Amino acid sequence: MRGKRERLTAAAVKMLHEQGVEKTTLADIARAADVPVGNVYYYFKTKDDLVEAAIGAHAQRLQSMIASLDELPAPQDRLKTLIGGWVRQRDLAAQFGCPTGTLCSELDKRADGLDRTAAKVMRGLIDWSEQQFRSMGRSDSRDLAVALIAAYQGISLLTNTFRDPELMTREGARLERWIDSLARPSEDPDDLR
Amino acid sequence: MRGKRERLTAAAVKMLHEQGVEKTTLADIARAADVPVGNVYYYFKTKDDLVEAAIGAHAQRLQSMIASLDELPAPQDRLKTLIGGWVRQRDLAAQFGCPTGTLCSELDKRADGLDRTAAKVMRGLIDWSEQQFRSMGRSDSRDLAVALIAAYQGISLLTNTFRDPELMTREGARLERWIDSLARPSEDPDDLR
DNA sequence: GTCTATACTAAGATAGAC
DNA sequence: GTCTATCTTAGTATAGAC
């Protein structure tokens, strides 16, 4: 059994994704981590400190996913594998949305600096995508990266709103075709270039 | 000066967009509407009732925007004008995100029926877009409509996350080029082009 | 270092005066 | 029909026992 601090952080990641930051109480997190409520304050000075730790843990998880994608030799395969991962997670997206997106959306409504912390995670994803498009020889790599992540964030929101995982599947297929069309230019009229 | 009920509803639409549902208190709304706090309960039985009225008012505003788009003869112009509207509103999106999207995202975290009410508004937008693509003779009109609204929701989230209106401008231009690339001789018998 | 009991605060909701 | 004062609850945070 891991240390309580780790258990609390992991429980926070899960609960914040499922219920959102505002609706999740310290009691919810403590229960999920099997730690007494009042005890939370021994490990984290405030709720925001715990939220920050949760964002950090989520960022690390994303980092290691990105690292495994970097093992693939071709940038277009890295991007398509990323999209494949989104599709595999479609049921979770239908239930709770994209973890990164819901965090950014919710934390933006706050004055403190937590929103910037969440934004950094999102920026990391865009920066990595931009590198892949650049490796593919695209001079408009930034716009393409923004468009790709926007497409994912948008379809996550719709998949969640309508509780329909199929939306993610279909959009994922469309995005993979798009990546292909960027790698090997075709006459596909749906080409988003 | 309009009735207090209308003032409260209008203030709620504004505050819910700017602060989100959870962070907005009845006191916030009452202050914005210049109505005493306790008095709110004369007009709305609960906070949720007021939120529901706000969603309805927002839906009506969208409806009238859609109605004015329908005045345009060509479906691709209707879609491009819709996109132009999104770009014009870019500063608001950078500050607070898309009103419909943030509502759907936040209300989804709740068990009650308010999330379905917000989802209906989103569905209305997709349905209307689907009609436009169908009028353009596309058999894959549903997928295209979902992709368009997802692109908008996603770029709204990123524009808001990075507080950068320019992101909306660039993605809007890309989407307009995309609409142009989809244009086909229409199979709509009512289309007199 | 761990946990219980409790203080404090903010916000939703109600009772009742005018 | 309008508004003030107040009740209640829930959730963050702290003090202090063990």
Write the layout of secondary structure elements.
The structure is a homodimer of 193-residue chains.
Chain A: H1 4-19, H2 26-33, H3 40-43, H4 47-69, H5 75-88, H6 90-96, H7 99-107, H8 114-135, H9 141-161, H10 165-183
Helix pairs in contact in A: 1-2, 1-4, 4-8, 5-8, 5-10, 6-9, 6-10, 7-8, 8-9, 9-10
The first copy, chain A, binds a DNA duplex (18 and 18 nucleotides) through helix 3.
Concise synopsis of the structure shown:
The structure is a homodimer of 193-residue chains. By secondary structure, chain A is an all-alpha fold.
Distance between the termini of chain A: 51 Å
CATH class of chain A: Mainly Alpha
Structural class of chain A: mainly alpha
| Outline type of chain A | elongated
Which chains make the largest contact? A-B, 43 and 43 residues
Estimated helix fraction of chain A:
over 70%
Structural description of this entry:
The structure is a homodimer of 193-residue chains. With 193 residues, the first copy, chain A, is an all-alpha fold. Helices cover 74% and strands 0% of the residues of chain A. Chain A has one domain (4-183): Tetracycline Repressor, domain 2 (Orthogonal Bundle), CATH 1.10.357.10. The first copy, chain A, is elongated, with a radius of gyration of 18 Å. The mean pLDDT of chain A is 93. Chain A binds chain B through residues 19-20, 22-23, 96-97, 101-102, 104-106, 108-110, 115, 118-119, 122-123, 126, 143, 146-147, 149-155, 157-158, 160-162, 167, 170-171, 174, 189-192, and chain B through 19-20, 22-23, 96-97, 101-102, 104-106, 108-110, 115, 118-119, 122-123, 126, 143, 146-147, 149-155, 157-158, 160-162, 167, 170-171, 174, 178, 181-182, 184.
